[in-house]
Structure prediction request, 227 residues.
Amino acid sequence: MQIKKTLWPLLAAFLLLSSCAILGIDSEAQSEFDQGLAFFNRGQYEQAIARFHRATEIDPNFGRAYLYLGRSNVSLKRWRQALPPLRTAYRLSPEDTKKEALDFLIDALFAVALDDFKIGNWGSSVGHFREVLELQPTSGRGRNEMAKALVAQGGDSLSRGNVSQAISAYAEAVKLSPNSFDAIFGLAKAFFRNGEFHKARQAAQDAMRVAPANREAQSFFKDLQGR
Prediction:
């Protein structure tokens, strides 16, 4: 009986080392990961982060360590800090487990993009929504939110006198959201500022088709008639 009690820990250690070898994971990295996972499951995310980070230092190809490093930061609502490890986890994940990493990465990208939008960091917001659409091209929410960010960026560019940048932002917003009055009417005003009156009239007409009762668009189109 005493021999069996002695053999079990040795057998468990052997199995752990064997599984690590099969998966190509450094045993020290696996040990750090296992300790991190124990902290994670208890909700002790700061301690988990330290262990997961150490595991990735030991083994830079340890995909699940990156995933749980990102998830720990997500649990603490540290969305920006979550992005780098989640991007790496997605890149390293095998095809059959990629969706798990992708779901967390998309959530973090949305959170950062929306936060950037709130503070008026339009370029960064657009960039993060663009990444969402690269990962999930059919995301309706991604398209709508990116269109809003582009409209805001277009308005900011127009107010600063950067008309060409405004036209580019509004035009992309219209492609993403063809029935967005703000995007179409913004494009009309940008064309007008650029002296492209024919394009401005066309865009103003499109804006009135979307919102026939909008008085600002009606007045703007009327002013353009004589140009």
